[in-house]
Amino acid sequence: MYVKQISVFLENKSGRLAEVTSILGKNNIDISALSIADTTDFGILRLIVNKPDLALQVLKENGFTVSATDVIAIAVEDKPGGLAKVLDILYKNDIGIEYMYAFVGKITDEALVILKVENGDYAVNVLKENNVRILSANEVYSL
Amino acid sequence: MRYWDEHMECMERGTLQEIQLKRLVETVKRVYTSVPYYRKKMQELGLIPEDVKDLSDLQKLPFTTKQDLRDNYPYGLFAVPLSEIVRIHASSGTTGKPTVVGYTKHDIGIWSEVMARTLVAAGADKHSFVQIAYGYGLFTGGLGVHYGAERIGASVIPISSGNTKRQIQLMVDFGTTLLACTPSYALYLAETMEEMGIDKSQLKLKSGVFGAEPWSENMRKEIESKLNIKAYDIYGLSEIIGPGVAFECEYQCGMHINEDHFLPEIINPETGEVLGEGEYGELVFTTITKEGLPLIRYRTRDITALHYDRCKCGRTLVRMEKVIGRTDDMIIIRGVNVFPSQIESVLLEMGEVEPHYQLIVDRVNNLDVLEVLVEVSERMFSDEVKKLEQLEKKITKAIEDTLGISVKVRLVEPKTIERSEGKAKRVIDKRKI
Question: Which residues form a coiled coil (chain A) (predicted)?
């Protein structure tokens, strides 16, 4: 039920992001979603890729500080209020969101959202009970 | 046996000071008459030996530095005819000409005495088996400990350094009870022991005296648990005599200086002004019993503080704290002395940080600012900004608590701080003063 997200520590200096994407490109790794959280000094690059294990390995080999985290990928209706509905479910069940980002898939009537929550297993159950579509890892990697 | 020489080690300070003064006066006379270098230096200051009437008159005398020893290479500062010299030691000379030191028969006797005190304080007696894994040769470590161990009648195993597996085998077979070597070699011995499948229970080892390089309290704990011993810190430098200048007792609250032979002072390394008890500064020694190479106010470049309150062990000899740094790598930020080693120990204590760091000093609007770069390791990395910011704050607070000044901690990518084969370049000073 989880998708493996790759997180990379980046200093805020030019060229670092280009380097990450170029390493992934050279290794034939496809990025399906990415987000950057940044502070004044550093940023954390979060990536969803088709081959997370390989991505972890090649980035490490190139000297980056990298970790793999389990996140949840869900599909929401691509219309006004679609995301609000899901967030409301999480709120009512007291599930705090650590971070989230949306990404574009090739499926037309759904918007895809990556969620990192405090209690993943509980969140997955709640979402399922409320008929929110959770994407499988394979589904996401092949996007 | 708790003391080697209870009379000298536990003497009332007043009596000790009388002895110190008498010996200081003799030393000053001796260098004035026998060492042209000192006579010239004193004459330049308008001093004659009779000006030293009180211990506080020590402050009038000139300093001696390592450079002075080099300038007078090899025998220029010796105070006796070379026929009286029975032993010569020297530093490796990696940073210039080696510093050469010479001992008379009497000097070797003093050295043996102070090392005997050191070893007894670390639990040795005539029944001990002392394995000396310090290098023998021009380096003072090996022979210094050797003569001290012989003086107390212990059985000496003079194996010198290296040959690690054999060291361990002999330690087991000969029943070594006290190990003398550098702290890093003690850890290496422990690791090799594990690889050889030898358990610490097979050893009779009770204690160890470790010195010749800086080491942390964490390292002490590691040596103590891995070898199942009590680890004692010792201090010395060849210019003063070698190992045995100062030693730890069982209470391990600083090292007792053998101040009936070596008169310590703490000075401000910038101004030369003498500092008070408990204040950090450069340690300076005047030898007051040595014949071959007496030194007046020798600047060690080591930074520490002195404490005169009575130790629980009963010794009245002043205690010096573990050396916290060297004047050569000290930086002054807003008037506060900062040593890279202080920051290193903060990072090591936090446990989650690799000690790869660099200090960048700059001056912004006439104010010194200190930025500490810390490499982010996999262990401390998190995919959440919040957690990394908490880590940054935790490091900042720990460093500020230690240094007493504000700093800016910046997390950087691994391997971005320059590595060097030898001494790491820890400080970049961008101030244009």
Answer: none
